[in-house]
Structures are given as structure tokens and as C-alpha cells.
Amino acid sequence: MKAPVRIILGSAVIGTVIAAALLSLFWTPYDPTAMNIAERLQPPSSVHLFGSDPYGRDIFSMILAGARGALGVALAAALIGIGLGVPLGLWAAAGRSWVDEILMRACDVVFSFPAVVVAVLIAASFGPGARNAVIAIGIFNIPVFARLTRNAARGQWNRDYVWFARSAGRSALGISLTHILPNILGLLGTQATIQLSIAVLADAGLSYVGLGTQPPMPSWGRMLEESQTMIGFAPWLSLFPGLAVVLTVLGLSLLGDGLGALRRLHRSPGE
Fold first, then answer.
1. What are the residue boundaries of the ABC transmembrane type-1 domain, all occurrences included (predicted)?
2. Over the chain, what is the mean pLDDT?
3. How many angstroms from the chain centroid is the CA of residue 164?
4. What number of H helices and E strands is found in the chain?
5. Quick check: 59 pLDDT over 90?
């Protein structure tokens, strides 16, 4: 699949998810937290588009509200990683060797564990909740962006324009912020979409084990956990939240892959 096609498809999917999240701020067909036992376990119909759960809550309304939570956690976690990881990476690339060595060894420790496992350990230590889920996922994002920034920035420090800037008396901080950072923003943007997709999965996993978003706020992961014993006679309970997670991650992955392919093509037109 060509890069423009991946970008278009990914943007369409993510645009739909964002629109659903924004819509849930102002309107949902039903209150996503309101129980109505008289309409429990209703199959998909014109009354309940995606059916209802064992408590009579409207699944479609819960999916819309869950999109807001999933994207909010993922975006906040990505901002933590960028806000702390990028400065650390720039510092390591421009600083002394011991700074670089300490940062890389810390990254190796974090990378020795899967992202979801790290998030579960941190969330379990701090306690359940959306805020702690953001902190847990964001902590894992920091070394990701730190190492990426460090590697990309070190390559830029060998360029001629950096040599001229140093000859003109520019400080390492000034060169990092005004020359190097703008040249690696495309790479960081591509990585950000990848980390967003990982964060959506991590948030769903944390909610699935009870460490993420807490009731009564709907969560795709918790919807999957609550539906696992009823898949045989009420498959819509797991089908729609599962599709929401899969499509969101797929859309972000397509967007990230497409942006990465375009960036590589721009750097090497002959390839």
C-alpha cells in the first residue's frame, strides 16, 4: 500500500474516532452511565444501534464516551513522553559522554520489559484510575522519545550547518533548539503516532485488568472485560468495543507508517 493511501485511510479512521470523542462531549443517544434494567441485553436495533449491556446501558453511547477517554489518555501520555524525552535526548546528544551513557542505560532498563507490562506495574503501584494510567504510559514514552531524539540529533551534529553555527559562537542549547530540533520534527511526529497507538492498547489493557479508567466512566477495555463471560449469547458486547480498539490502533499505525514512508522518500528520492 502506497504512503499517500495509508495516510488517507489512517486519517479517515482517526478523524472518525476524534469526531466521535468530540461528539460525546455534547451528545450521546443515551446517558452512557445510566442503567435501565428493563432493556438489558438488547441486540443491535434501531432503538439501540449497538445493543445494550447487562445493565441496560446503550453500547453505542458507551463507545462514543470511551473514545474520549482512550484518546485523552493516549494524547496526555504522548505529551509527557515528548515534553520530557525530547529535551533529555537533545541534552544527551549535545552534552558530555556520561550524560549520554546514563540516559542510554536507563532506556535499556525500560526497554527490557514490554510497554503494557511496565504500564501495569506502575499503575498497580500508584493505584487504579485514568490519571495514573496516563502517568504509567507516559513514563514508558519518555525513554522512547529520549533515545529517538538523541540518535537523530547526534546525526545532525555532524552536519555542515551545525559547524557553521558553532563557528559563529552559538551555544549548544541554541543550536539544539533553533537548528537541530526543527530538522527532526518529522521523525518525532511519526514516532508520536506510533506511541499513540501503543498508548491506546495499553489503556485498554489497564482498563481490562481494572487499573485504568474507573466506573462509571465508560472504557473500551473494561467493556471487553465485562463481556467475556457473555460472548456466546451476546457477542455484540465484545464485538463493538473490540472493533473500536482495533480500528483506532490500525488508523494510527497506517498514519504513522505513511508519514514515515513519505519522510524516507523525501530524504532519498531515488529509492
1. 67-256
2. 86
3. 38
4. 10, 0
5. yes
Q: Which residue has the cell 515528548?
A: 82
pLDDT digits (tens, 9 = 90+) for 12-58: 999 999 999 999 999 999 999 889 899 999 999 998 999 999 999 99
Residue whose C-alpha cell is 499517500:
4
Is 270's pLDDT higher than 60? no
Residue 185's CB is within 10 A of a number of other CB atoms, namely 11
CB of 181 within 8 A of CB of 154? no
What is the separation of C-alpha 17 from the centre of its chain, rounded to a whole number of angstroms?
13
Q: Which three cell numbers stand for residue 234?
A: 451476546
CB contact at 8 A, 2 and 246: no
Domain of 48, CATH number, reads 1.10.3720.10
Residue in this structure with the C-alpha cell 511519526, named with its chain if needed: 190
For 56, counting Cβ atoms within 10 Å of its Cβ (0-12 exposed, 13-18 middle, 19+ buried), the class is middle
Residue with cell 486519517: 11
Give the domain extent around 225.
3-267
What is the dihedral sign for C-alpha 95, 98, 104, 110? negative
Position 29 scores a pLDDT of 93
Output the pTM of the full model: 0.88
CA distance 68 to 71: 5
Average pLDDT over residues 190-200: 91
